[in-house]
Amino acid sequence: MRKFLVLGFVVLLVLALALAGCAPKQQQGGVEQPVKVHEFLFATGGTAGTYYPLGGAMAHVWNENIKNINVTIQPSGASVENLRLLNSRDADIVMAMNNIAEDAWNGKGAFAQSGAIKGFRAVGVVYPEIIQGVGLKERGVLTVQDQKGKTVAGGPPGSGTAATTPHIFAAFGLQPGDMTIVNDTFGDAVDKMKDGHIDAAWNVLAAPASAIVDLLTTRELAFLEIKGAELEALRKQFPLVAPWVIPAGTYNFRGTPYPEIHTIALQAVLYVRDDMDEQIVYNLAKFLYEKNADIAARHATGNQISIANALNGITTEFHPGAIKYYKEKGKM
Asked: Residue 181: phi, psi to the nearest 5?
């Protein structure tokens, strides 16, 4: 037994020395010292949405370009949950919808009962958030109003989608009791639509959304448009909502392209803990906008990341590190 214990100790010692040899080092008084690697948790969204794969592409670029940091992505319930994770210090970096961040800052909407939270700061806009609702044509769900009496996926708990869709439905005269609302992730909702267990589903996604493209391989869909008087009523209540047109041909069913789709958009914004190091946040902003092509090489939504759009629709406070970057670029 003693022999095995000694052997085990030797193996552990060799592994520890090997790992120590691989660790980054810096010179201090002529002696090499290990460099501290800052670990950051990046809460994104569901794996079938845009936040999760795009967050992975962003994290890769940051890890490649910013010395001594390691950003790890984590799936989550998205906007509402993400901002709470920042406030509780259970995440360091998140993406969230700008209207949800405004609600958190002011203690409204999903934050009315828990109260305002302000343990986060904005870094900048990542891309426009396009709200996309789809219905099964075979079930007669061709418009928002057609959801009455149907089973509808209104967004996962803690997401910006779940916080936004009730207001969309209300603008079209629908009350919660008019349909059966389920709070599946969009990935689960798509699977259930394929099996005919859900009639319509909503999410906030880049376009084209891979999950919708996948669904169109087996089911003919109608895109539930938001326009006209209902759009104006929604914008009057929520000024951050903007009209958005998904170009014709973005989606197709068995080779037949869909015409342009009228819906609404908000902004997907990068937020960090309010106590994060200023220089690190400066670098997060810098490489988000200056290495957007590298992000796009890993996820197409990276093409929509632009410093020209970086400040649009953000109503909460910016992090000092982001402010420093924007001042250098003449944006503030």
From this structure: -95, 130
Contact 156, 126 (CB under 8 A): no
CA dist., res. 266 & res. 244, Å (int): 9
Nearest one of 239, 204, 60, 47 to 134, comparing CA atoms? 204
Query: 38-126+268-328 architecture in CATH?
Result: 3-Layer(aba) Sandwich (3.40)
pTM for the whole structure: 0.77
- pLDDT digit string, tens, across residues 152-207: 999 888 788 888 899 999 999 999 899 999 999 888 999 999 999 999 999 988 88
Locate tokens 């998205």: which residue?
Answer: 78
What is d(CA 291, CA 221) in angstroms, rounded to the nearest whole number? 36
pLDDT at 27: 52
Burial 12-45 (b: 16+ CB within 10 A, else e): eeeeeeeeeeeeeeeeeeeeeeeeeeeebbbbbb
Report the candidate in 142, 145, 167 with the shortest Cα–Cα distance to residue 154: 167
Fold entry, domain 129-266? D-Maltodextrin-Binding Protein; domain 2 (3.40.190)
Residue 10 has pLDDT above 70, yes or no: no
Residue identified by tokens 């994104």 is 44
Q: What is the pLDDT of residues 238-272, one digit of tens each?
A: 888 889 999 999 999 999 999 999 999 999 999 99
Domain-wise residue ranges, the chain: 38-126+268-328, 129-266
Fold match between domain 38-126+268-328 and domain 129-266: yes
